[in-house]
């Protein structure tokens, strides 16, 4: 009897510890001296905007677009940790997105596993693949890293097309069930909007903590100079693989949501063009900034939707716009506009503060 | 029949496609030797070469050699424009931005050419008949010999350019030591400009040579460009001889692989070779003048 009680207690302890650990990833660390900065007024303003948007603008097309933008934003957020903070290029996140989507599609349609479990499994599978692929290729840099990750995407696509028993081949898998949570079905774009953006907000909080953690500082250091970083005792390879795995897990979450929202998974969605799109989201949003990739994702999703009206011209206009944006906004639209807006809006405030300081 | 019986035939087709990969790889290497930039729109030059020749031949009605030469000039013009409009404004940008800009340009070129020339795949007539003849019992298409001959002619031209002329020396200097090149009065932007022209010309010649054998469609450039880059990395990044060697090895490996694995996996072979070479010997088979073995 006594033994049974103790095991029960231990199990519960384990559960509590796990829950606390999960919470600690999202909540601010009470030991950090700068914890008050974690959530600023600006963040609450953005949060209010996100929560109110579908109520203020009740159009199902807008809801659908914003669901897609939220999914892409999760993906771009993961990549921005790798590209913006650690300074490495990856064109391979489309593959992790695809792995996430296929894991969810296969688990839910073939094995009847509930979407929530499949959601976590997708991130896990994507992370395992990222670890396996990351170990050998992350010693490369620049163009060669980009090419190697691109090669991974191509290999993934070929395998998907050539194993129709598992992945449905070129046609893909249909009939992925809606995401459901304890019997509550996310079956309209309105509900999915809150699901996707809720997950995105959780992941932003996680990334904010990560960036402020020891690992985040180490990443910023190794982005500047790997030699200098390793000379102060940072394990460069471990850090790079770690952030690659985290980015891939984000991509797995996004892929799983994508499969649930679109209710299909097919190889057309995960090609080279898609990889370019994700990297563009990060670059256009401004690198080294957590809100940048989200702004980039929203901007490019709307742009593609608008360009869809030009039919056969849409892709060449898209290429042209990408090049023009890169030439005129190489640091991202957000960065340049932000700088100007800050100067315009907060000029008066800073002037006042400066005057009071001088007195 | 066992797969081994088909090997000679796969070898001969592998050498042909290998020569094309080698030409594309030479295009990459030419630009890299002048500026360390990697132009991911290189494959689109190949596609444009075939497409423009086809439309000059069938819609304008020029004779075949005239159409080919004119299209090479057009593609060189496209290469110059690409440099002036995309690369030159971004010459100080970081690697991810240059990479994305050339990929965006490649998207623009391929989709515009689908609007201009139509989305259907095109085929040119062979240069000298399509009657295959036997060499040591293996049927060979005459076009393959044209491809091989042109590859070696262009290799000779490039060798002469980069080792025997002042222009070639200046191009190489502007890549290996930009400051030194500036100090000795080399106009670096002009050198890169010329390198884009040479590389576009080579790409278009590859396109004209390949279109009689493999169909060229608006979207075929991207994959060819990637495989050309893989060939250049495989042989030794930044070396003309490495590009040629890598091209042939890649072409032969791809064709021969069809004998042993399902043909759908053919496109993955190049990328698996790439991952292996990048892991075990990042500077390529012949070694690379640009890659310090420790840091890459």
Layout of strands and helices, then pairs:
The complex is a heterodimer of chains A (359) and B (296).
Chain A: H1 2-26, H2 41-56, H3 60-85, H4 93-111, H5 115-137, H6 142-162, H7 164-167, E1 173-174, E2 180-181, E3 184-185, H8 189-212, H9 214-224, H10 226-231, H11 236-262, E4 264-265, H12 272-285, H13 291-307, H14 314-328, H15 333-345, H16 347-358
Antiparallel strand pairs in A: 1-4, 2-3
Helix pairs in contact in A: 2-8, 3-8, 3-11, 3-12, 3-13, 4-5, 4-6, 4-11, 5-11, 8-9, 9-11, 12-13
Chain B: H1 7-35, H2 42-60, H3 64-87, H4 95-117, E1 133-135, E2 138-140, H5 142-164, H6 166-176, H7 178-183, H8 188-210, H9 220-235, H10 240-260, H11 266-280
Helix pairs in contact in B: 1-5, 1-6, 1-8, 1-9, 1-10, 2-3, 2-4, 2-8, 2-9, 3-8, 5-6, 5-8, 6-8, 9-10, 9-11, 10-11
In short:
The complex is a heterodimer of chains A (359) and B (296). With 359 residues, chain A is mainly α. Chain A is 76% helix and 2% strand.
Oligomer: heterodimer
Rg of Cα set of chain A? 22 Å
List the secondary-structure elements of chain B in sequence, H or E.
Answer: HHHHEEHHHHHHH
Helix content of chain A: over 70%
CATH third-level topology of chain B: ABC transporter involved in vitamin B12 uptake, BtuC
Radius of gyration of chain B: 19 Å
Q: Tally the beta strands of chain B.
A: 2
Tally of discrete structural domains of chain B: 1
Shape of chain A: globular
Number of helices of chain A: 16
The SSE string of chain A, one letter per element, is: HHHHHHHEEEHHHHEHHHHH
Just give the CATH class of chain B: Mainly Alpha
């Amino acid at each position: 009897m006594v033994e049974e009680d103790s095991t029960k207690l231990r199990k519960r302890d384990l559960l509590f510890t796990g829950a606390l650990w999960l919470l600690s990833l999202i909540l601010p660390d009470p030991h950090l001296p700068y914890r008050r900065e974690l959530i600023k007024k600006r963040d609450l303003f953005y949060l209010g905007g996100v929560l109110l948007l579908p109520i203020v603008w009740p159009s199902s097309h807008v809801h659908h677009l914003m669901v897609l933008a939220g999914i892409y934003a999760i993906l771009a957020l993961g990549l921005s940790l790798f590209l913006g903070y650690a300074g490495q290029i990856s064109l391979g996140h489309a593959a992790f997105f695809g792995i996430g989507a296929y894991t969810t599609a296969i688990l839910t349609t073939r094995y009847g596993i509930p979407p929530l479990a499949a959601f976590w499994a997708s991130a896990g599978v994507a992370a395992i693949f990222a670890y396996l692929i990351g170990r050998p290729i992350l010693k490369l840099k620049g163009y060669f890293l980009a090419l190697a990750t691109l090669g991974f995407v191509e290999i993934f696509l070929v395998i998907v097309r050539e194993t129709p028993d598992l992945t449905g081949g070129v046609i893909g898998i249909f009939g992925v069930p809606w995401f459901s949570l304890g019997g509550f079905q996310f079956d309209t774009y309105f509900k999915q909007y809150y699901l996707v953006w809720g997950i995105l907000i959780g992941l932003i909080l996680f990334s904010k903590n990560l960036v402020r953690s020891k690992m985040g500082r180490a990443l910023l250091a190794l982005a500047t100079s790997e030699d200098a970083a390793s000379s102060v005792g940072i394990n460069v390879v471990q850090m790079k693989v770690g952030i690659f795995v985290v980015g891939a897990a984000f991509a797995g979450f996004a892929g799983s949501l994508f499969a649930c929202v679109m209710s299909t998974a097919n190889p057309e969605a995960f090609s080279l063009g898609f990889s370019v799109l994700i990297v563009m989201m990060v670059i256009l949003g401004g690198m080294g900034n957590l809100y940048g990739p989200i702004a980039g994702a929203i901007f490019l999703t709307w742009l593609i939707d608008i360009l869809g009206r030009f039919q056969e011209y849409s892709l060449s206009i898209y290429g042209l716009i990408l090049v023009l944006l890169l030439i005129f906004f190489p640091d991202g639209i957000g960065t340049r506009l932000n700088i100007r807006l800050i100067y315009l809006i907060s000029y008066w405030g800073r002037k006042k503060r400066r005057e009071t300081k001088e007195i | 029949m066992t797969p081994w019986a088909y090997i000679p035939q796969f070898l001969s087709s592998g050498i042909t496609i290998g020569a094309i990969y080698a030409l594309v790889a030479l295009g990459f290497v030419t630009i890299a030797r002048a500026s360390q930039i990697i132009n991911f729109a290189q494959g689109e030059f190949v596609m444009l070469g075939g497409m423009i020749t086809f439309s000059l031949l069938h819609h304008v009605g020029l004779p075949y050699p005239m159409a080919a030469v004119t299209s090479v000039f057009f593609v060189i013009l496209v290469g110059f424009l690409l440099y002036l409009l995309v690369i030159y404004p971004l010459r100080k940008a970081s690697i991810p931005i240059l990479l994305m800009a050339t990929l965006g340009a490649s998207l623009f070129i391929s989709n515009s050419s689908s609007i201009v020339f139509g989305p259907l795949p095109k085929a040119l007539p062979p240069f000298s008949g399509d009657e295959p003849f036997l060499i040591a019992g293996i049927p060979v298409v005459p076009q393959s010999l044209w491809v091989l001959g042109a590859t070696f002619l262009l290799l000779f031209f490039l060798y002469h350019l980069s080792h025997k002329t002042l222009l070639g020396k200046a191009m190489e200097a502007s890549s290996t030591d930009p400051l030194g090149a500036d100090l000795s009065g080399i106009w670096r932007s002009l050198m890169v400009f010329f390198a884009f022209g040479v590389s576009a010309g080579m790409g278009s010649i590859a396109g004209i040579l390949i279109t009689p054998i493999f169909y060229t469609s608006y979207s075929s450039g991207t994959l060819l460009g990637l495989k050309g880059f893989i060939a250049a990395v495989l042989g030794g990044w930044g070396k003309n001889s490495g590009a040629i060697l890598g091209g042939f090895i890649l072409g032969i490996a791809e064709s021969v692989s069809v004998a042993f694995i399902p043909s759908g996996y053919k496109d993955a072979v190049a990328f698996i070779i790439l991952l292996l070479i990048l892991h075990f010997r990042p500077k390529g088979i012949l070694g690379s003048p640009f890659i310090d073995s420790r840091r890459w």
